[in-house]
Amino acid sequence: MPYLSPARCRVQWALQHWHARSPRALGVAEHAGLESPFHAASRPVIGRLCLAATLLALAPLAVAVEINAALTFAPTWESRASASPYEVGQGTTHNGSRQDLELRLREGGFNAQTTLRWQATEGNKPEQHGFANQAYYDGDLGPGLGFTVGKKVMSWGVGFGFRPLDVVQRENRRGVNLPALTGLPLLALERFSADSAWTLAWVRPGAELGARTGSDDSRDSSLAFHWYRLADGDDLHAVARLSHRRGFEAGLGATRVVGEEWSFHGAALYQRRYAKALNTLAENGGLLATSDPMLATTQRNGLKAVAGAQWTGSHWSVLAEAWYDADAYSRAEWQRLDALTAHQRTLAAIAPAQAIAGNIAWSSQAYLPTNLLRENLLLRLAHDNGDDFKPYAELLLTPADGGRVLTLGASHEGDRQRLTFGLRLTFGLRQLGGKPDSAYAQAPLRRAAWIEWRWALF
Amino acid sequence: MFRTLTLLLLSLVALPLQAADDVASLLKQADAYRLPAAAVRVETEVDLYRNGALDKERSYTVYMKPGRRSLILMKSPAEAGQKVLMLADQFWLLMPESQRPLRITASQKLLGEASTGDIASMTWSTDYAGSKADDVACPQPPAELSQMAGSAAPKAATRCLHLDLTAAAPGVTYSRVELYLEKASKLPVKADLYVSSGKRAKEAWYVAKTLDGQQRISSMLLLDDIQPTRRTVIRYRSIVPKDAPDEFFNPAALVRNSLSGW
Known about the structure:
The complex is a heterodimer of chains A (458) and B (262).
Chain A: H1 7-16, H2 23-31, H3 45-58, H4 62-65, E1 67-80, E2 93-107, E3 110-121, E4 127-142, E5 145-152, E6 184-192, E7 196-203, E8 222-231, E9 234-243, E10 247-258, E11 262-279, H5 280-284, E12 294-312, E13 316-325, H6 331-345, H7 353-363, E14 375-383, E15 389-398, E16 403-416, E17 422-434, E18 445-456
Antiparallel strand pairs in A: 1-2, 1-18, 2-3, 3-4, 4-5, 5-6, 6-7, 7-8, 8-9, 9-10, 10-11, 11-12, 12-13, 13-14, 14-15, 15-16, 16-17, 17-18
Chain B: H1 2-32, E1 40-50, E2 53-65, E3 69-74, E4 83-87, E5 90-95, E6 100-104, H2 106-110, H3 116-120, E7 128-137, H4 143-149, E8 159-167, E9 176-182, E10 188-194, E11 200-211, E12 214-224, E13 230-241
């Protein structure tokens, strides 16, 4: 089975989670051991009961020490496109479910957020594991001067669907039903005044800066700097980052509020190096590979940029945002990959089926990045009349190839008490489509539906 | 004759100025019943009722400083970790999931079940201005107010001063306020709150209690005109003078947990 494993399994796994769970948040991060490992796959039920009993015992302390616990149940249903040139599986649906028991603790400068997760996806053995999303200490060195040490979520920049200046956390902003973010180990020095601030962070300090350890951005040791200033009512941001994988990155961003209803934002990031996984057969010629042909190619002088405007009335909110991501495929790169895939499918009479399926599965890794095309346009309409039910609609367009993603969703906040129990329900439906030869229309995933129940226990 | 006319003209010009000064003075006196100091920490509980039944309960810690600066920390489990920063007419929201301060507009601040302006704005004298105060009969309080106040129920209606106030600063929650103060004590009794369209959005009733020998506003009842099945009760569990450092009111500092000792 040289073509179908392990790459085949990895691609299938990733595609099942595509846009429902970020590869970085779940796939790469977990496989790379980002989370403090106390994997409990083989632990008996009594372990879970002990944890539940511990949480209940902690409840009376919640007010004094600021402890919060929440239980999340998040099933996802995915319908796959059997006609997609990149679909090699037999099934037409892939369902999954995630249950998280989350505990947050804040005492003084100490902050911890841990998760115990039970996860099941169709066709795979259920998994259980626990990890720390965050565990860090915020200390003070003097008036307005502080430090942070530990594992922390550090998000920077402006933007709704895409944030070019988010050079440390690199949050996936286009996923649905995403679990809580997992931070990165870092050591940071922070300075605050009344209207300005800066942060200097050494991210993943365990790895030597400049060493060839970074297989992806979350593994890359880096020095990162963020500067913020509130000037004449405008939020101004600047970031710089130095890492082996990207080299030097630097960017600027701003948000301006006009009147009581309008806000505008924009940001741009220059990258000395940027990388994407391209199929060497599509780029250099060839028909079938015997090992994964998707190789990371490094290119120079990349740009990421976003610009957007939002209007908020008494009950309605409208957002329009456009962005460019050099890390994503160009239209020409998709056309070359499409042509290769179509050619490979014509070889059914003369090549082993496994070889063809394996090559297509490898090519389908092109669907892993958050942005499939460089140019993206997002339109969002949301309604909030103060009721519990808050619906929204989003339309993502890729003008270069005519692709689109329509998302309809809503959130609902149920009864919630001051000290115990609260319910939040979110649900939605996402449909991919557009022109027949667009990347989204040819995606192995056709539509996804999801629900997330979140009970705040105390 | 000429001297008399001059004096008459001068007095006509001076009257509105004097009245405006009086209104400003009245507002400061009324504010003193709500905030004992310019920089405070307020522990607030909010109960939201729908069709007469308790729908939601929330808890907030609010830090306020001069210069129309407020920082709201949300304490209820479903909102734990959320923060709203208000610097005059500029607003930021921090959601714990993202750990990134999000700039929001004044309109976005008003979305949701409870306006943060009702919780974080407690001074009329810095936000509103008026030109005259009329001597009127005090409005009749609703029945819910007696239930809320319990033994501290207000006395029967007395004479009140009626102040018609307009927003004097950008970004205030309500563009116009009709405020009723007890004539003798200047204690806030009621406020009609209008949004920018001119429509009355809410009716606020104030309940005072004696704390440390001084009368203080201890709770507030909000009746919603736009969604009349709703009413909100805001209780001030404690209001203590507390001068949090300026850097805590920096939007970028919202991600830090430094306020736990304050």
